[in-house]
UniProtKB/TrEMBL annotation:
Transmembrane residue ranges: 25-45, 224-244, 284-310
Membrane disposition: Multi-pass membrane protein
Catalytic activity field: L-glutamate(in) + H(+)(in) = L-glutamate(out) + H(+)(out)
Protein name: Mitochondrial glutamate carrier 2
One Gene Ontology molecular-function label: L-glutamate transmembrane transporter activity
Native source species: Macrosiphum euphorbiae (potato aphid)
Family: Belongs to the mitochondrial carrier (TC 2.A.29) family.
Gene3D superfamilies reported in the protein's UniProt record: Mitochondrial carrier domain
GO (cellular component) term, any one: mitochondrial inner membrane
Solcar repeat copies, ranges: 19-109, 117-213, 224-313
UniProt function note: Responsible for the transport of glutamate from the cytosol into the mitochondrial matrix with the concomitant import of a proton (symport system).
Alphabetic keyword roster: Membrane, Mitochondrion, Mitochondrion inner membrane, Phosphoprotein, Repeat, Symport, Transmembrane, Transmembrane helix, Transport
């Protein structure tokens, strides 16, 4: 009996009064802005670790996460750690709103009245959320990664006695649209979709089950206490992040458009996978994995906590 009660709590669909779109957008925006501001330097380091290639002597520019932090700060200063953050902060609001709201909506559609949501249907709901979000995520990731990686390319060029002109997200976007049309902003969409759909398939069911194990609020809502949602988001986020890190490495390399002359070009997901495996071995697919886990854990912990706290509902006076 207790087991059935727990299963029902874990898999029950969200009630219909949770589908007010505006509060979800506001909650996702607040969560995204706070989360990105906190973890962006880690994300920048993760991108540079994943995208660096061995030099002629086989050595890497960055030996570790701490070494990448130290060298980036020394070369670019404090604000250099936030290179590309404006694009991410601008687009994180719709991205988080789509991911969280779409998962709830798909769970609602896939639920059978009077029956708990099965694991397969939870995974399908997560897949739907991941698929929908790539409309916003792909351009955001493309511009963010190029801006983040610009410092690494400039530093490498400086060591070789060359100079690389500075780029901005606006100039990059204009160049892509002018040369390749609107689809230029969707370079790497296949790898982004693979990563985000797989991530959501793992993340949302795991979060739902972990979140259901914690103590409930005493207000009669049945929601978990805030720290439980935060911890559940951190654990589920970091676990899913590590699982999809090989796909994230491929996506990062495909989207790093402007490379130094010595770096490889990739024609697609399969070509990138093959060349990376042949030239750098299987461990290359887990490069930056620790950074990615550290980035994703607080980002999703914050997102889920804000989402379930109902900050927007409190501000707007809407019943949660």
């Amino acid at each position: 009996m207790a087991s059935n009660a727990l299963q029902s709590e874990v898999t029950k669909p969200p009630s219909s009064n949770r589908f007010s779109l505006l509060p979800k957008i506001i909650n996702g925006g607040i969560a995204g802005i706070i989360g990105v501001t906190i973890v962006f330097p880690l994300d920048l380091v993760k991108t540079r670790l994943q995208n660096q290639k061995p030099g002629p002597d086989g050595s890497f520019m960055y030996r570790s996460m701490l070494d990448a932090f130290r060298k980036t700060y020394a070369a670019e200063g404090y604000f250099g750690m936030y290179r590309g953050s404006a694009v991410n902060i601008l687009l994180i609001t719709p991205e988080k709103a789509i991911k969280l709201a779409a998962n709830d909506q798909f769970r609602h559609w896939l639920a059978t009245p009077g029956k708990p949501l099965t694991l397969i249907r939870e995974m399908l709901a997560g897949a739907g959320a991941g698929l929908f979000q790539i409309v916003v995520t792909t351009p955001m990731e493309l511009l963010k990664i190029q801006m983040q990686d610009a410092g690494r390319v400039a530093a490498q060029a400086k060591l070789e006695g060359k100079t690389v002109p500075k780029v901005s997200a606006t100039s990059l976007a204009r160049e892509l649209v002018a040369s390749k049309g609107l689809l230029g902003l969707y370079r790497g969409v296949g790898a982004t979709g693979m990563r985000d759909v797989t991530f959501s398939i793992i993340y949302f069911p795991m979060f739902a089950r972990l979140n259901a194990l914690g103590p409930r609020k005493k207000d009669g809502s049945g929601d978990a206490v805030f720290w439980c949602s935060f911890v559940s988001g951190c654990v589920a986020g970091s676990s899913a992040a590590l699982a999809v890190n090989p796909i994230d490495v491929i996506k990062t390399r495909l989207q790093a458009i402007k490379k130094s002359d010595a770096e490889l070009e990739y024609k697609g997901v399969v070509d990138c996978f093959t060349k990376t495996l042949r030239n750098e071995g299987p461990l290359a697919f887990f490069r930056g994995g620790a950074c990615r886990m550290i980035v994703i854990a607080p980002l999703f912990g914050i997102a889920q906590t804000v989402y379930y706290l109902g900050v927007a509902e409190r501000i707007m006076g809407v019943k949660k």
